[in-house]
Amino acid sequence: MRRLAGALAGMAVLGTGAAEARPLRVMALDQCADQYVLALRPDAELGLSPRADDPDAWMREAAAGHRRVRPTLEAAIAFRPDVVVRYWGGEPRLLARLQASGEQVVTIDDATDFNGVRANLRNVSEALGAEARGEALTARMDATLRRAAPDPAGPRRSALYLTAGGFTAGEGTLIGAILGAAGFANAAAGPLFAPVSVERIALVPPTRFVLGFFDQVRSDWRGPGRHPVVRRAARGRVAARLPAAALTCPAWFAADAAEMLKDGA
Predict the structure, then answer these.
(1) Phi, psi (rounded to 5 degrees) for 61
(2) Contacts of 110 (CB under 8 A, 6+ apart)
(3) CA end-to-end span of the chain, whole Å?
């Protein structure tokens, strides 16, 4: 491993002039980072994560034709990125090396509202030299939020967000911000993420349900959210079924989830 790293480091020094002429090389360490680099620097040489084209990736079609790179130290040494983008991904050895060597790493924060998403877009686009694309994505998100906004004179509705695994999301989460953007009061009993019991749903069924991640048919297929009691309680009360691809990353397409919610209400 030391010999490989040393050899590559020597090649980098000897080939500095050639490196300056090559396209920007960007490595994404997880699926959320994939979405950002695909949207902001499609013209760069991208090293995407192995999950870039999974069904729950928002930009899975755009990932076609791009290289996949495992988020490991060995893969990073071989790929030699100029910028590394991550949300949660990267093995400990790789993260420690990146920190020690002072490599340019931009981290996508776990946004809990749309201002947090705006900050993510600004930070990642600046790191990638793609400020114009970042501003365009922010403007697209804001336009989508305007379309999703409820009629101020309309009734205030309430809805419970529920995953197939039986979890809900209260205030202080991006899901809560999505519900609010579409004009729904959040029926979750508390803040952040928490389990919801089948018994509670049976005894006090919510007025409306917002179902998330149910399109992943192999995920939590025996979870509380798929319980027959819950299915009966939700019958005729589902405001929207939000796809996993719109929910897996604190990104601009959270606004699309809000618009889906308004359209399905």
Answers:
(1) -70, -35
(2) 87, 116, 250
(3) 56
| Token pair listed for 111 | 């946004």
Q: How do beta strands 25-28 and 83-86 pair?
A: parallel
Whole-number Å distance between alpha carbons of 121 and 41? 12
- Are the C-beta atoms of 81 and 105 separated by less than 8 Å? no
Alpha-carbon distance of 4 to 12, in angstroms, equals 12
pTM (predicted TM-score):
0.87
Q: H/E/C letters for each residue in 71-115? A: CCHHHHHHHCCCEEEECCCCCHHHHHHHHHHCCCEEECCCCCCHH
Give Cβ neighbours of residue 195 (< 8 Å, ≥ 6 apart).
166, 167, 168, 224
Distance CA 234, CA 244 (A): 19
202-235 exposure pattern, b = at least 16 Cβ within 10 A, e = fewer? eeebbebbbbbbbbbeeebeebbbbbeebeebbe
Mean pLDDT value of segment 86-104:
91
Tens-digit pLDDT profile for residues 151-193: 887 777 899 999 999 999 999 999 999 999 999 999 998 889 9
- Which pLDDT tens digit goes with each residue over 187-233? 998 889 999 989 889 998 899 999 999 887 666 667 788 889 989 98
Q: Count the residues in the chain.
A: 265
SS3 call for 27: strand
Distance CA 240, CA 264 (A): 5
47 contacts 83 by C-beta, under 8 angstroms: no
